[in-house]
Amino acid sequence: MAALTGSYGRSFGVAGLVAPADRFYGGCVAPGTLGQLVDDKTTGWWLIVGSGLAALGSFLPWISFRTQDWTTFTRSGLEDAAGAITLVCGTVIGIIGGYIVGGSQIRRGILMVLWMALITAGAVWFTDFLDIRDRIATIHWGPTHAKSVGSGIWAIAVGLSVALVGLVQMSAAVLRPNDVDN
After folding, report:
1. 90: which DSSP letter?
2. Pairing mode, if any, of strands 72-76 and 11-14?
3. What mean pLDDT value characterizes the chain?
4. What radius of gyration do the chain's Cα atoms show?
5. How confident is the model at residue 40 (pLDDT cuts 50, 70, 90)?
């Protein structure tokens, strides 16, 4: 059987096994699916949910201290540049996820933007998490004081992990080599 070829010269797969290519990642078929196309809306929703959590985490407290008189001090991510970076990266990932849910095709250039945003936000999260952990370890106020990593750091970690699932799913479809013509 001969493979169909699209307007960009990309193979759509074996004739009769795939749907029209304009609805899915330029006609790419996920490896191991025997002609079943990847559902791009699911990928987009993974990205939207993950980016929403990461962006929300930028606003939440990243570190918190409670003193002996129960006064609580918190510091959010947006009080320094790290929170702004995670917010921008989360927003970029969410916008692209919205385009995917809307039915837009994703090309390799957009995929690389997504990977760079995820890697940048992940690196910022990791360095700030280590810094916060080290700062908490050096504080010795006594047994009645509480110190902890804030919920914002954990929201960003979960959000980036969820976005990573969608990004890996999308990468499997977009970066897959063209189907072999028989």
Report:
1. H
2. unpaired
3. 75
4. 22
5. low
